[in-house]
Every structure is written in structure tokens, then in C-alpha cells.
Amino acid sequence: xNQQGKPKFGKVALVTGGTQxxxxxxxxxxxxxxxxxxxVDIEPAPGLEDRLVKLGAPAANFLQxxxxxxAQVRKCCTTILKRHGRCDIIVNNAGxxxxxxxxxxxxxxxxxxxxxxxxxxxxxCQGLAPKMIENRYGRIVNLSTDAxxxxxxGFSHYLASKSAVIGFSRGLASELGQYGITVNVIAPGRTRTxxxxxxxxxxxxxxxxxxxxxxxxxxxxxxxxxxxxxxxSDAAEYITAQTLVVDGGLVRGL
Length: 254
Known about the structure:
Layout: E1 12-16, H1 21-32, E2 36-41, H2 48-55, E3 60-64, H3 70-84, E4 89-92, H4 107-135, E5 138-143, H5 156-176, E6 181-188, H6 203-210, H7 225-231, E7 243-246
Parallel strand pairs: 1-2, 1-4, 2-3, 4-5, 5-6, 6-7
């Protein structure tokens, strides 16, 4: 470490939900920027570690974790610190968005949505931030959504969780700023990923989804990586507690 606590060589970065869609693009960008990348996901990811190393990561790990399971998340944090000695960047990207109207929304689905979308962020930050505090350096980026600024039904549980992400991030930024740690939020718009592909299978669906955007097209995972690259860089060391909406200009601020 140098005097400011910044890693002298490549940083160590965690990306949850890091094997597909936006999370995979995040992992690939961080690898290309020279970070050691730990990708966490519930499904196996054969070949991912080699892929990230070929992109430029000094090393890469895939850890199979159900982020809704607190014990698994805590074990994951212990493994990361044991293997790498630190974690400089946390990207809490894992999330679910199952549609359910209030009349059919079960308590189990509500709790699972909160566990994956919010509680996992809390647990990863709680497990890894102490080392950031010790090193007096860290970048935390949490994922919310631009849908908080839209008229949308059937997703009250999802919107509640993503609102909590912003509140949690602002509170954490206030707590950790004194240690050289920033906490920010990226709020993507509708993005074409494997999990959204079915909904965008029809060309008309794509046109409807992007018609109100200032940039007249659907988002792609690669559209999100510039925001992450900046917020995790040393150039953004005075930016914290902010929400950056990346949706082609659909929502004009949150």
C-alpha cells in the first residue's frame, strides 16, 4: 500500500451476480483494468476465471454462493480475505425482479427479494469493509434501478428493495467516508441481458421499451461499465452517496 492506502498494484474487486448480463460486463471491465476479480454467483461458471485472466486480471476466482444465505455470504467474505488479504472494490450487483401483484405477493417472495437485493449488500459490506477501513481505501458500488422514477405495477417488493439500496448506500457513505471509502449507486434502465431476453424477444417490445428514452434504443450491459469504471477509479475519490442513472435519459434523475 502507498501512503494513502491505495493499492500500489492491481486492486482486488468483488462482483456479485458476476457471471452474466451486467455483472459479467462489470467483471470483464475490472479485469481489463488490471484488477484481481472475484465473481460470485449462484450458478457455476465454467471457464470464467480463464476468461478474466485473458482480459488482464492478474488472478480471478469464481465462488459459487447463494447470496440470500447469510452463512454462505459470511463464508465467502472470509475466503476472499484469506486468499487475497483485502478487497478494494465491492460491486453489489446480484438481484432478482419477479413480478407479483400485491394480491399474489407471498411473504416468502417478499423476504427472498429483500434477502438477495438488500441484505446481501449489507452482509458483503459488513464482512469486507473492516479491511477497507484498515487500509483507508475502498470503492463500493451498489445496484438499484431507474424504475423508482417510473409508473410501474407488480413490482412493489422489487421497488421497495431498490429504494432500500439507495438509503443504505447513503447511510454507509456517511459512515465510511472518513476512511477514504466511497459508496455510490448505479441505477440502470431496461437492459438487454439473458434474464430479460424473453421479455424483449419481439422487436415491437424493444421499440416500446426505448421509445421514451432520449437515446432511442434499449440498454446493453456494456452501457453500464463506464459508470462503474469511473466510480471505482481514483478520479472519483470525492464522489460519494450519489445515484448515477444509466438509462439513456428515460428518467431525468432520482
